[in-house]
Amino acid sequence: MLYDNIMVPYDGSSSSRAALQEAARFAQQDPGLTLRIVHIMDVETRVAALLDKRPSARAEVTSSDLRRLHEQVIQQTDEALHRQVDSILQPLLNRVIIEFLEETSPGAQIVAYATDNDCDLIIMGSRGLGALRGMLGSVSNYVLRESDVPVMVVKHSE
Predict the structure, then answer these.
(1) What is the DSSP string of 50-106?
(2) In b/e form, how buried is each residue of 32-71, taking b as 16+ CB within 10 angstroms?
(3) Domains in the chain, number
(4) Pairing of the two strands 34-41 and 95-102
(5) pLDDT tens-digit readout, 97-126
(6) CA 50 from chain center: how many Å?
(7) What are the φ and ψ backbone dihedral angles of 138, each rounded to 5 degrees?
(8) H-helix or E-strand containing 107?
(9) What counts of helices (H) and strands (E) characterise the chain?
């Protein structure tokens, strides 16, 4: 086929789910294709939210508390991601790689990941869970402008 290594940035939005379904269609046509699902998450904000919910929110927080909360956020995110994507991925015979990246700059991270991992195509949703800019989300707009890897933007009809 045309593609050997497809990246799908996945944020849990209906648009990213539609992109994953499109990537799964490519994968079904070529069992040799590798599918890379990359979930970029803002761990720091999620840890802060958990700290705010604690009854003793103003109590001193140790580094071991922060490490434990960090691991908890990653585990919860992993479980939620698998609940969302496993039904799409289960019938595939392809090699599937799921990776988590901590957010710093999602657009730049997607472009760098695709380059660093020799992806031949990025399939992503038109709008994610973040702020929107025009018809495309700001992240998909950034990736379209900056990526040397071909990008397919999938629009989810709601």
Answers:
(1) HHHHSTTTTS---HHHHHHHHHHHHHHHHHHHHHHHHHHHTT--SEEEEEEEE-S-H
(2) ebbbbbbbbbebeebbeebbeeeeeeeeeeeeeeeeebbe
(3) 1
(4) parallel
(5) 999 998 778 999 999 999 999 999 999 998
(6) 22
(7) -65, -35
(8) helix 106-116
(9) 5, 7
Q: pLDDT tens digit string along 18-41?
A: 999 999 999 999 999 999 999 988
Distance CA 5, CA 117 (A): 8
Q: CATH no. for residue 32?
A: 3.40.50.620
pLDDT digits (tens, 9 = 90+) for 2-21: 899 999 999 988 999 999 99
- Which structural domain range is residue 122 located in? 5-154
| 68/3 Cα distance (integer angstroms) | 40
Pull the structure tokens for residue 75.
């585990």
Amino acid at the residue 39: H
Question: Strand 151-154 and strand 121-125: pairing?
Answer: parallel
